[in-house]
From TrEMBL:
UniProt organism field: Silurus meridionalis (Southern catfish)
Location relative to the cell: Mitochondrion matrix
Protein name: Hydroxyacyl-coenzyme A dehydrogenase, mitochondrial
The family this protein is said to belong to: Belongs to the 3-hydroxyacyl-CoA dehydrogenase family.
Domain 3-hydroxyacyl-CoA dehydrogenase NAD binding, residue spans: 24-208
SUPFAM superfamilies on file: 6-phosphogluconate dehydrogenase C-terminal domain-like, NAD(P)-binding Rossmann-fold domains
Binding, NAD(+): 29-34, 52, 117, 122, 144, 168, 300
EC numbers on record: 1.1.1.35
Record bears the keyword Cell division: no
Record lineage: Eukaryota, Metazoa, Chordata, Craniata, Vertebrata
Biological-process GO terms, alphabetical: cell differentiation; fatty acid beta-oxidation; spermatogenesis
Pathway of action: Lipid metabolism; fatty acid beta-oxidation
Length: 309
């Protein structure tokens, strides 16, 4: 596969070192998040390669990106459908797919990982890519809950490793949490901030602490909603309505859990429980465990707390 290779641009004077400019992005994981990030990166003129384990999955990713772009275009180019179609084609031209991460990362500025929320699997991936990716390539994880430093230790590029935590649905959600692990260099951190802005997002700086900002507040709330339901304090429908009409939240906790994915939510709470089993905010839920074991993972599988057609 032929790629245009883009290397860092640096200022000549050391007193005004410019941050690296990310042009070519490799996104590993073409699921919910990876597809969304690919869409946004390609829409903002970046050259994107989306990597997953099979071509079948990648075909689904491409289909979902096209569908999402077409929804954007319907609104944005309501009066000019031809210009809209041109835009979709232009964006899709910026995206290619591959099942072979090793061959792709040889010419990339940023490897952004959005695979399963499992430390060992993420470490194995980064450890293998570290041996192949060029010196200048920055590695970043979109993990929701795993400390970036724990993933980064699998590589020899701690200074060029940070966190980029996007929110679902990526094309709609403005926030990106940019995580500076203890080893992340200031230049890498600044580059990731700049990259987030180049995607049209609003970055916030976060320390490498569990859940960063949003999930550290959100996940204990979601789990307490499940416990409330388990204790029979209310039906899931009533709890959802209560939080929407009483707290002004756009989605109820069960709707949000189904949207995020119950497996992803379980990974998060399991990891935090393991880290601090005495903390009641991190206690596990038998109901969540049961649904995940039955493959009811939320919207993406057609059933979670609710059923979807
Ligand atoms: N779902 C959310 O709302 C959300 C929000 C922010 C961050 N995240 C994080 O983003 C990551 C991905 O979450 P998701 O919801 O997109 O999951 P997902 O299950 O929709 O997608 C994961 C994809 O990764 C692929 N994959 C797994 N192992 C791989 C490997 N070794 N190489 C290449 N591809 C591989 C899978 O085939 C799948 O397509 C997780 O770390 C999650 O915590 C999720």
């Amino acid at each position: 596969m032929a790629f245009v290779t883009h290397y860092f641009t640096r200022a000549l004077s050391s007193s005004s070192i410019r941050n690296a400019v990310i042009k070519h992005v490799t996104i590993i994981g073409g699921g919910l998040m990876g597809s969304g990030i690919a869409q946004v990166a390609a829409s903002t003129g970046h050259s994107v390669v989306l990597v997953d384990t099979s071509q079948d999955i990648l075909n689904k990713s491409t289909k979902s990106i096209t569908g999402s772009l077409q929804r954007v275009v319907k609104k944005k180019f309501a009066d000019k459908p031809e210009a809209g179609e041109e835009f979709v084609q232009k964006v899709m031209k910026n995206i290619s797919t591959s099942t072979d991460a090793a061959s792709v990362v040889q010419s990339t500025d940023l490897v952004l990982e959005a695979i399963v929320e499992n430390l060992k699997v993420k470490q194995d991936l980064f450890s293998s890519l570290d041996k192949i990716a060029p010196e200048h390539t920055i590695f970043a994880s979109n993990t929701s809950s795993i400390p970036i430093s724990k993933i980064a230790v699998s590589t020899a590029r701690l200074d060029r490793f940070g966190g980029l935590h996007f929110f679902n649905p990526v094309p709609m959600m403005k926030l990106v949490e940019v995580i500076q692990a203890p080893g992340t260099s200031q230049e890498t951190f600044n580059t990731l901030l700049d990259f987030s802005k180049a995607l049209g997002k609003h970055p916030v700086s976060c320390k490498d602490s569990p859940g960063f900002i949003v999930n550290r507040l959100l996940v204990p709330y979601l789990m307490e909603a499940v416990r409330l339901y388990e204790r029979g304090h209310g039906s899931k429908e009533d709890i959802d309505v209560a939080m929407k009409l009483g707290a002004g939240y756009p989605m109820g906790p069960f709707e949000l859990l189904d949207y995020v994915g119950l497996d992803t939510s379980k990974f998060i709470i399991d990891g935090w429980y393991e880290m601090d089993p005495e903390n009641p905010l991190f206690s596990q839920s038998p109901l969540l465990n049961k649904l995940v074991s039955e493959g009811k993972l939320g919207k993406k599988t057609g059933e979670g707390f609710y059923k979807y057609k």
